[in-house]
Structures are given as C-alpha cells and as structure tokens.
Amino acid sequence: MTHVIGVDLGGTKTAAGVVAPSGEVLMSETIPTLNRAGGEAILDATAALIAGLVERAADAGLSVSGVGIGSAGVIDAVTGTVVSATDAIHGWAGAPLVAGLSARLSLAAPSVQTVRAVNDVHAHALGEAWLGAAAGSSSSLMVAFGTGVGGSFVLNGAPVLGHRFVGGHMGHIASPHAYSDGVPLPCVCGGSGHVEAIASGPAIYESYLRFGGSAREALDTRGVFALASAAEALDGGAAASSVGSRTAAAHAIEVGAAAAGQAVGGLINILDPETVVISGGLADAGSLWRTPMEFALRQELLAPLASVPVVSATLGNTAAIVGAAKLVLK
C-alpha cells in the first residue's frame, strides 16, 4: 500500500510526516525553516527532510509515491510556484516550489512521482474537513486567528483557492473595529483598517498598549491574557498589577474578539457553510476570547443561519500535514 508525505512549511518551522491512505500520520520530523537563507536553501532543506522520511518509511516496509505541501505565501496550485510571500521568509516569493522539490527528489527519492502544493492555511482547513472538526461536512469555513488571520472555504473536499490563488485571505477585509481616534489602523499587508490589524495576536498586544497598558506588566500577547485572567479571578496576581493595565488587557481582548466574531459572522452570511471551524493560537486561549468572539459572530448571522455549528479545530499541529497529504492521496 502506497503512502504519501505531507509537509507544513511555515515561517519558523517545517514539519513533515508519512501519511497512510487513512490519514494516519505514521512518523514525522520537524526542522527550523531557513527563513533568512533564501528560497534555494529552503528547497534544499525541505527536500532533505522529505528524503529522510522516505528512507525511514522504506526501512519500515512502506513505499512513498507522492508529496503534498502546505506552504506559507500565496501558492499557484497549478504551476506550484510561490506567487507572493511576506518578509517572514526572505526570498520565498517567486520560488519554484513544486518544480524545485521535484528536481531535488528525482535524485534523492526517485519513488516520489507526484508533488503538489497549496497555501498552508488551505492545507490546514483541508485536514480539518477530512478528518478533523468538520469531518463529514459537505462544506466548511475555517478561520485561524493567531500571529495573522487567515482562512479557507472547503467545498466538497476541495479548498476554494480563487482565480489568482488568493482566496482565504480573510484577515484583509475591512473591520469597523480597526480604527483608533477615527484613523484606520495599519495592516501588515500595507493596507489599513483590516481585521488582522485589530484581531490578530500581535494586534491585541498593540491595542493593550494603545488602551493604556504597561509594557512592563505584559511583554506580549500571552502577558495580556495573563493580566486579563488575573483580573477576572481577582486573585493575588490581579493585586500585583495596576488596575489600568488589567482594564486595558480585558478591553484589548474584548475588542479583538468582537472584531474576529463580526468578520466570521459576515463570512458565514456570504458562504453559508455547513460547519465553521475556529483555529489558531487565540482560539486556544479559552473563554476570555471565545465567549465575546462567538457572541459577536452570532449577532451578525441572518436568521436561517442562527444554528450553524461553530466548533474548535481538533487536529492540532498535524492538520496541515494531513491536509497537504490529502492533495495527493487518491
């Protein structure tokens, strides 16, 4: 029985696993992404990672015939090239992802006959749609809130990529929350007033500072959530921090969560998915974020959509590996 390798190529790490036709990840490895070394170095390292897993699989009596890749950036799924990418990975835009890996693997792992690629969030959503929180649904919308905001609409087992493969950039729609004193907040894409500028993890930290929180009392977004949790519990931790910082932390989370929920609710009204999956680091932060997010989401919904299931992602770190593998599994 043939197996495939799924690859999750992100800005800081690249994970890959040998995946059975059932979707089970049988073995996996992770390496740092050489995000400052340029596209050729990343392709070299990724090919070596894949070749190593092919060898491990062979030692276990398993054959590997294909590789699916979920990669950071806008990925042309037809040509397999990186159309554009942020500076999180230097020199990644324009990289011949599929052709470059195929050429390298033809020497290092000649059993690999097929290589396909999509954006990593599409791979993540495909994994959740196949075996995760949206398994069994004919359509699912997944939105991930973490360092950035992204998503994917999976319809009948395939992610909707868009004509120019930019589909799913849900963090870059307008949000009425993404303003300060009437001025739209700058977004990492170069625009302003977008959901990601108010609802991402880094944006929540920036809101905390803008609302009067002290950088000494919260060094990052995790610190903001710790302050807000302490304030909610009214325990010794709350007493140790200033009222102003605790209030700023709670307000920043509430505004970011409300922006997230409003955006997802609007997307549900447009797409009418069977199931909605919420993923990412903020989704794992608990009720401080989840409760106001889902309240804002439900407030947006048209009446026929009131009972749409909104669930948390379940596959964790393997979601993109499994989804990428699904690209080449029959």
Termini separation: 12 Å
Radius of gyration: 21 Å
Side by side, the strands of the main sheet go: 3-2-1-4-7
Based on the structure, what is the oligomeric state of the protein chains? single chain
> What's the overall geometry?
globular
Beta-strand proportion? 15-25%
Number of strands: 14
Outline the low-pLDDT stretches. Answer: 235-239
Order of helices and strands: EEEHEEEHEHEEEEEHHHHHEHEH
Helical stretch tally = 10
Calculate the mean pLDDT score and round it: 95
Q: What structural class do the secondary elements suggest?
A: alpha/beta
Question: Main beta sheet, described?
Answer: 5 strands, mixed
Structure description:
- This protein has helices at 39-59, 97-108, 120-131, 196-199, 201-210, 221-233, 236-239, 243-271, 287-300, 319-326, and strands at 2-9, 13-19, 25-32, 63-71, 74-76, 81-84, 114-119, 139-145, 149-155, 158-159, 179-180, 183-184, 275-279, 310-312.
- It has 330 residues and is an alpha/beta fold.
- A hairpin with a 2-residue loop joins strand 9 (149-155) and strand 10.
- Helix 1 (39-59) crosses helix 2 (97-108) and helix 3 (120-131) crosses helix 10 (319-326).
- The radius of gyration is 21 Å and the shape is globular.
